[in-house]
What does this fold into?
Amino acid sequence: MPLRSLLELELETVNDLVLAAEERYWDAYELAVQGRAFAAIYVAGFTAEMLLKVAGFRFEGAAPGDAIHPRFGPAKTYGSLRFPTIGPESYHSLRFWTAFLEHKRAEAGRPLAPAILAELRTRTDRAYETWWISLRYRVSGPVATTARAEMLPLLEDVDWIRKNHFCLWS
Amino acid sequence: MSFRRATARSLPPRAGELEERLVQELTKPSQDPNAQPIVIAEPPGNGPITRLFVIWDEWAPLSQQDRSEIIMDAYVRAKGQADAVRISVAMGLTAAEATRMGFAP
It folds into this structure.
């Protein structure tokens, strides 16, 4: 059976995203080691996106085995009402998922500790300036120098999200 | 034959019609408990609704993401923004999918 048919048999769950995020991080790391900065950036961004999504969903009560797609509609509606200037960018925006987590936590009376929140904002803002989903349609050649300069900061920011993921949603 | 400029991804053509019918069901539920769409709201009891499951065979050609967005668009119209921001799950299921998930027919 083709890969797509195999994978589409089941809906993606919260836990699938956690595991995929870890795989993509190490894929990106390998690409970075090989000097493929642009590709490393492209792949690493998905780790940040998935972990931020999961943090928001876990905070609002999702279990590891819960499907993620039924949460997209409510997340989009919530964002359009609570932080309408930040678009979801087809559910890939790092800023959107950071704002989603931040607003959900604040509304529940359990905001992140100020130091963690400040760090999260700094890192996701910086990552957002490097990565967005439409990077896939861009050619690396003309921006190779910039990509090389931004690759390590992005990997560091993504690694920070990985290492602090539990405290983002717990 | 027609020519038009492509736009950003949008909901499928039937989304508006499905949303309209869902708004009707949410505002004036059918008296027939087996008539689709069947809307199941959780948690049980009188607390705020946080999860919506809509069983409807007309979901079949639509993606899970489209179903979720249509449910929320209808819910905002029927119940208002204050109730809508409490929702964390909006899941559209065909009858067969609902049975597989353990929702009693």
Observations:
- The radius of gyration of chain A is 16 Å.
